[in-house]
Design a protein that fits this description.
By secondary structure, this protein is mainly alpha-helical. The protein is 74% helix and 1% strand. The protein is built from 13 helices and two strands. The chain has a two-stranded antiparallel ribbon. Helix 4 crosses helix 8, helix 4 packs antiparallel against helix 10 and helix 6 crosses helix 8. The radius of gyration is 24 Å and the shape is globular.
């Protein structure tokens, strides 16, 4: 198991460096357009020269990777917030992104599992067909479509909820205030529909397969009721592949949603990432990429390792 973990970490680091290098080269190939102010243009050229932006891209990549690996230095922003550390900007934008995705998961996980269990128990009946149809609709339609519909009906037409997320000033300076929570209900719902649909479909598929297994028939012949067999045997075994996906979802709350944050004006990392592209703020763009790539790769490793902890029968990397 230890050998497998070390191997996965090594592969993660290699993958991380490859993706970072590709992103660095691609953003550096985008030309910088000069403005109309001649003095400002000269200042910008001098800054680019001092930062090594005029050196070959491979040399710039080597300098960036050296600072990142040995000093954990993500650089500073030159466009969005001049001379401010990128790491501090990401840390400041992280709480709203995490809170939004955390509320979304807390809302979607129990509903998704409950609907999946209900559909599996009512397999091939009208209840199962209704749930499957709704799931297909939610899976097929992008989240930003739900966002626009929620904004139109709940916010614009019926005036039930705020159109966009409240600012910290309006909410009293706290992300955990009631006013802030109410203003985040719409983006939470927009993010939850897809998660509920995916979890419902996954739970139904796993539980349906478990209910038709031989040990479930044995449990019923031993005298267990259908409810006892489902709760104590079927659900327990079906959760083995489901729980890792839930763990991965909790890790991914750091990444957020670029589109949903933009639609509802959530001041999270998604908006910061888009602004870095529009402004061609190289260090800020690369800092956001480092954050997203690391979270995604770490989530993959945690999911793989969680199988062995959830079910002791699974030991990855064990010799046959």
């Amino acid at each position: 198991m230890l050998k497998y973990v070390l191997k996965r970490i090594a592969l993660m680091l290699v993958t991380f460096l490859i993706i970072i290098s590709i992103c660095f080269v691609l953003i550096k190939l985008v030309p910088i357009t000069d403005g109309t102010d001649i003095i400002q243009n000269e200042i910008e050229k001098a800054k680019r020269e001092a930062l090594g932006y005029n050196k070959p891209i491979i040399v710039q990549l080597g300098i960036y990777l050296k600072n990142l690996i040995f000093h954990l230095d993500l650089g500073v922003s030159w466009k969005k917030e001049r001379m401010v550390d990128v790491s501090s900007m990401i840390a400041r934008r992280l709480p709203p992104t995490m809170i939004l995705n955390f509320y979304s998961l807390i809302f979607s996980i129990p509903i998704g599992i409950a609907l999946g269990v209900f559909a599996a128990l009512k397999k091939n009946k009208w209840q199962d067909h209704c749930v499957s149809t709704i799931v297909m609709i939610f899976v097929s339609v992008p989240s930003f479509v739900y966002a626009f519909l929620l904004q139109y009906f709940l916010a614009h037409k019926w005036k039930l909820l705020p159109l966009i997320t409240s600012s910290l000033v309006d909410a009293g300076g706290s992300w955990f205030s009631w006013k802030m929570f109410v203003s985040m209900i719409l983006p939470i719902l927009a993010l939850s529909f897809g998660s509920i649909a995916g979890l419902t479909r996954f739970t139904r598929a796993e539980l349906t397969e478990t209910l038709t297994s031989d040990y479930m028939l044995l449990a019923r012949t031993k005298g267990l009721t259908k409810r006892q067999a489902v709760v104590h045997h079927a659900l327990k075994n079906a959760m083995v592949p489901i729980l890792p996906s839930i763990i991965s979802s909790f890790i991914s709350i750091l990444s957020g949603s670029l589109i949903i944050e933009g639609i509802f004006a959530v001041p999270g990392i998604g908006g910061l990432y888009i602004e870095s592209v529009n402004l061609l703020d190289y260090d800020l763009f690369m800092g956001c990429n480092v954050f997203y790539i690391f979270v995604g790769l770490a989530a993959g490793i945690v999911v793989d390792l969680s199988y062995g902890f959830i079910d002791p029968r699974i030991r990855m990397g064990a010799s046959k």
